[in-house]
Design a protein that fits this description.
alpha/beta, two-stranded parallel sheet, 14 helices, globular
Amino acid sequence: MSRKRRMAAAVLALLLAFGMTGCGGREEASNAGEDGRLKIVCTIFPEYDWVREILGEQAEEAELTLLMKNGADLHSYQPTVWDMRKIAEADLFLYVGGESDFWIEAALAHTENPGQITLNLMEVLEESVKKEEHPEGVRPARGHEHTEHGHSGEEEEHGPEAYDEHVWMSLRNAQTACRAVTEVLCRLDEAHGALYEENNRAYKEKLQALDEAYEEAVGQASVPALLFGDRFPFRYLAEDYGLTCYAAFAGCSAETEASFETITFLAEKAGELGLPAVMKIDGSDGRIARTIAGNTRTGDQKVLLLDSMQSVSGQEIEAGETYMGIMERNLETLKEALAVTGGR
């Protein structure tokens, strides 16, 4: 695709212009050996926060960098020369590995750092990765495989872009990813391996407890369904708990306008199911969600935000934002959207 070619060409131009090809190996690419600090680079916030949790008290002794912290999300991010240098110098580099990360393959192919370890989340989670849902006309983005309005739940495979990148929205995937991160940190820093294992064990218990709370909440819903007047980056969450989800666009869609037919269908569906809310996602102005809510049979649906963590800012991180904190707030939003009361 043309966007892909343009980005790959831009990345290569940056690498060549700033001498990052053939840089002569680990010693010239990084000064990590000089101060003994691990250099770790993450593309997205969930990876960054998982690493912080596993490092624990050693986080102060590492140089941990988050690339996407200035408002850009996975789908619109464009790397800078500074980003390229950080990646080239990293002892450990974590990235998602989906279609939006095609620029990373070009960067890694032209960076010589023999001691570097890279973790591609979609490779780590290979058996759990789902195909992207591409609505055709008016179609629900579902957490289950069956047909509706004459459209099959089966997807055609179109290559790497056919897979849903939003793997971090599953608390179960988070546990698998943290296990992989722990193993790599233990290899890179054997002296603190026991600490990393203990931190991972404690964090896994928190993730499991929250997973159980989600399971309990969805189990109390009379209609386990969500309707998004927006993109749908929550397929992994939906499938974990058996939620049926309807949406205006697929998770990675660049569309910003919904058709009259789509809005009509979603408004009617919200009324048919008796849903108390229409969902929007982080970074959205909520315009489509409000239009849908205003055109339901009752016209009294709330518009609620479910956070997909695609644009967590540096300021929010400094203020104490965490993966667990966002997922806990998402749970409270989910309860309200599903009209769940009481419980945990």
